[in-house]
Design goal:
Blueprint lengths: L2 E12 L6 E12 L3 E5 L6 H8 L7 E6 L2 E2 L5 H11 E4 L11 H12 L4 H14 L15 H12 L6 E5 L7 H16 L3 E5 L11 E6 L2 E4 L1
Parallel strand pairs: 3-8, 3-9, 6-7, 7-8
Antiparallel strand pairs: 1-2, 1-4, 4-5, 9-10
């Protein structure tokens, strides 16, 4: 399996009142096309930092990071913005849907931003994605009228709007009950079956049957890959 994501000696430090805080150190990692990988570890272990680096939201302090052929550590901000819009879908723990837009309008937003499709095709595409995640009947409702599980399904549909090769999900079940959480995790399994690479930062321990492998982070270092 060829690598979609390659990290070599990646580290990330953040300034702090007592000096630099090292969130990641010496990370060497490859993730292949179509893999579903769970990144696990205690709070503060570096899970979110790793996802933010892979998604080009942040930059490494040292090392190299190549994702889908793009050297993320070298790209300009404008290049990263364009690349992320087309190649990466991101799902957040707190959904981050725009409250004044309906579900279908939230899903259309990445298409509008990247101008990937003709305007007439965007709503039908968004409705198709909402149907795939099981909430087509909620298309014209505002996020405030949706349950947490429904909002997370809309967020997953939004992440898929531009057909990304990679989906990053940061604690996507953290605010869901166990039954809804399992249903959301199954959606990520369905993405993997379609050939999408999924990197999932999660505290859920019951993911062994779903993922290809688990990566454990301890104090910013990879313990198993």
């Amino acid at each position: 399996m060829s690598a979609l994501i390659t990290l070599h000696n990646v580290g990330k430090s953040f300034p702090g009142p007592a000096g630099a805080f090292r969130a990641l150190a010496g990370v060497d990692l490859e993730i292949g096309h179509g893999e579903l990988v769970a990144v696990q570890g205690k709070s503060g272990s570096g899970k979110s930092t790793l996802l933010n680096l892979i998604g080009g939201i942040d930059r490494p302090s040292e090392g190299s990071l190549v994702v889908a052929g793009t050297p993320v550590h070298q790209a300009s901000e404008s290049e990263l913005t364009r690349w992320r819009g087309r190649q990466v879908g991101i799902v957040f723990q707190f959904f981050q849907l725009l409250p004044t837009l309906t579900a279908v309008e939230n899903v259309m937003l990445p298409m509008d931003f990247c101008d990937e499709r003709p305007p007439r095709e965007r709503r039908p595409r968004a409705l198709e994605l909402l149907a795939e995640v099981g909430v087509a009947d909620q298309a014209d409702k505002l996020p405030s009228a949706l349950s947490g599980g429904q909002q997370q399904r809309v967020a997953i549909a939004r992440a898929l709007a531009n057909g990304p090769a990679l989906v990053l999900a940061d604690e996507p079940t953290g605010n869901l009950d166990s039954t809804t959480a399992r249903a959301v995790l199954d959606l990520f399994g369905a993405l993997k079956a379609r050939g999408v690479t999924v990197v999932l930062a999660t505290h859920e321990r019951d993911v062994a049957s779903l993922v290809d492998r688990r990566i454990e982070l301890v104090d910013g270092r990879v313990q198993g890959a």
